[in-house]
Amino acid sequence: MIEVDVRRRHGAFALDARFTTDTQDQGGVTVLFGRSGAGKTSLVNLLAGLDRPDSGRIVIGGAVLFDSERGIDLPPEQRRLGYVFQDGRLFPHLSVLRNLTYGMKRLGSDGDGPVTLDTAIELLDLRALLDRRPATLSGGEKQRVAIGRALLAHPRLLLMDEPLASLDATRKNEILPFIEQLRDETGIPIVYVSHALDEVIRLADTLVLLSEGRVAAVGGVEDLMSRLDLRPLTGRYEAGAVIAATVRSHDAPGGLTLLDFAGGTMRVPYTEMPLGKELRVRVRARDVSLALSEPADISILNVFPGTVREIGGEPGPQVDVLIDIGCPLWARITRHALEKLAIAPGKPVHALVKAVALDRHSLGHGAGRFRASNETR
């Protein structure tokens, strides 16, 4: 359980955030998502104890870290929270091994906690780096060491403040699988700060949307990404539906993988994911076309019958249309097409999605394990 209800003013910026995430199982990732300046890092620093709220309450796993009314304000070293910064912040004069064990020594730990030294080394593939100094490491290697150091402090919660922001696409794709392993294998809950939708799709169990210092919404990724009113926060250009699916079968010769979802079967480029694996698929609105009747003799492999449920009201030459195909799916079409096809709520249509548009960056892990609630002040 993560309970946050805090207020903090920095000059003209006021943070006023309240949300709760309730775990059904151990572990999981709560992603704080929003534009630059939304208050994500400010909120994480309040959780870590690096800054103090003006008022409010912070509870992690039943432990009260801050309560202004009761006069409770635990110092950072007593909160048992691991913190991974954007730049790693390794000790340059220490080897990788000594960086890893630094937190263990401060806690007087013998390494027999939930994550042992050997477990961290294997999980993050660090064995070949143990004798090296940070200056000789790549950006991705530094972040893996920083994650390992945070884990070995045996935190009740791991804070990750945009840990991939300073990495190029190649290094970023190297690190993401390690973070997925942390989520799946350690049982340590994670609060993860990001402004990148691909990271949200791959990692989040619960999504907390922040805007101008306030919590706009909290919930599952699939639910929040389907809401038109949240489009200004989730990003218009990259906006689209997030659909829960299961790997059904593979067509290796045809270069395809078939996924079962609430709307039927979806074909995506071949992936080596095991049969039965639960995952998410992000279908961008700009990759969806509409037809009034089922087309024939076309190259598009994904054609789903559905009904128009909602039409976006923003002015301009493009319009977002919400279609129910057994689950929400967004299409972005021109206003000319909207009028020509007389598309309106209640109208039956067919949604067309190119398989090649659903690349590996569109696939994330399965549906979240969290129930979430929030209040907005």
Q: How much strand content do the residues show?
A: 35-45%
How many strand segments?
Answer: 22
> Strand sequence of the main sheet, in spatial order?
6-5-4-1-2-22
Summing up helix and strand content along with how strands pair, one would put the structural category as alpha+beta
Low-pLDDT sequence parts:
367-377
Figure out the total of helices: 10
Q: How is the biggest beta sheet arranged? A: 6 strands, antiparallel
Global Rg? 22 Å
Please tell me what the overall shape is: globular
Q: What's the end-to-end separation, in Å? A: 21 Å
Q: How would you characterize the overall build of this protein?
A:
With 377 residues, the protein is an alpha+beta fold. Helices cover 22% and strands 36% of the residues. The chain has helices spanning 40-48, 76-79, 96-107, 117-123, 139-151, 169-185, 197-203, 221-225, 231-234, 335-340, and strands at residues 2-10, 13-23, 29-33, 55-60, 63-67, 72-73, 81-84, 157-161, 190-194, 206-211, 214-219, 240-251, 256-261, 264-269, 278-284, 288-291, 302-311, 318-324, 328-334, 348-353, 363-365, 370-374. A 6-stranded antiparallel β-sheet has the order 6-5-4-1-2-22, covered by helices on one side. Strand 1 and strand 2 form a beta hairpin. Helix 3 (96-107) runs parallel beside helix 5 (139-151). The longest helix is centred in the middle third of the chain and has 17 residues, at 169-185. It is globular and about 65 Å long. The two termini are 21 Å apart. 40% of the residues are buried. The model is unreliable at 367-377 (pLDDT under 50).
